[in-house]
Amino acid sequence: MMPGAVIIGAGPGIGRSVARRFAREGLRVAVVSRSGTTLDLVGVLAYKADSTDEAQLKAALDAAAAELGTPDAVVYNAALIRPDTPGEATVRAQLDAWAVNVVGALIAAAHVAPAMARRGSGSFLITGGMPEPKARYVSLSLGKAGVRTLVALLDQEYGPSGVHVAGVTVAGPVAPGTAFDPDDIAEHYWRLHTQPREQWEREVRYDGTGA
């Protein structure tokens, strides 16, 4: 089968740009989102799943694998971004955010990375953020800290078998035509995916300067 990539959490920002960037290199691309749309991208497969619904997420990943084979790259880009302060915290709100920001990525990796490891190659990339915690964004700060730890754990588990696990930490609000243009950010996902093993990075921090 041709090389394939799966983008989970494919919205109009980073998700669309990453899908377009990988497709430009000749990879078949599948996107998994709550809407199940193709983001108006020609030739892209679309699957509907909520990243917090384990059965839905696994079914979508299985359907994508049936079309693409074991993916060469999986990008977890789902996130729940909302302002919330310590004084506004509720158990339900924090659990809901954690489920999207961290647990969905863990479940996706546990489902697809073993097959990548058996093959001896592949990339599992997670969109991070909030390099410094902010009290106005409690759940997002906690979630992105969790993502950084998750990347390290997945790297320990699957890295020795040839799976490149890495995070792209985006340190600002994403918007076209700004310093945080999603097309510019997408270049780093492709760069991580194509890095030789001896040059693997576990985290790229994108601060709006192109670095």
What does this structure look like?
With 211 residues, the chain is α/β, with parallel strands linked by helices. The chain has a single domain, classed as 3-Layer(aba) Sandwich (Rossmann fold). Helices cover 42% and strands 18% of the residues. It contains 5 helices and 7 strands. The chain has a 7-stranded parallel beta sheet, sandwiched between helices. β1, α1 and β2 form a beta-alpha-beta unit. α1 crosses α5 and α2 packs parallel to α3. The longest helix has 29 residues. It is globular.
List keywords for this structure.
211 residues, 18% strand, 5 helices, 7 strands, seven-stranded parallel β-sheet, Rossmann fold
Q: What order do the helices and strands come in, and which of them pair?
A:
Elements (H helix, E strand, L loop, with lengths): L3 E5 L5 H11 L3 E6 L11 E4 L5 H15 L4 E4 L14 H29 L2 E8 L8 H21 L4 E8 L11 H13 L8 E4 L5
Parallel strand pairs: 1-2, 1-4, 2-3, 4-5, 5-6, 6-7
Helix pairs in contact: 1-5, 2-3, 3-4
Instruction: Work out the helicity level.
Output: 40-55%
Task: Please give the radius of gyration in angstroms.
Answer: 16 Å
- β content, as a range? 15-25%
What is the chain-wise order of helices and strands? EHEEHEHEHEHE
β-strand number: 7
CATH fold call: Rossmann fold
What is the makeup of the main sheet?
7 strands, parallel
Name of the CATH architecture: 3-Layer(aba) Sandwich
In the sheet with the most strands, the strands line up as 3-2-1-4-5-6-7
In short:
The chain is of the alpha/beta class. The protein has one domain (4-206): Rossmann fold, CATH 3.40.50.
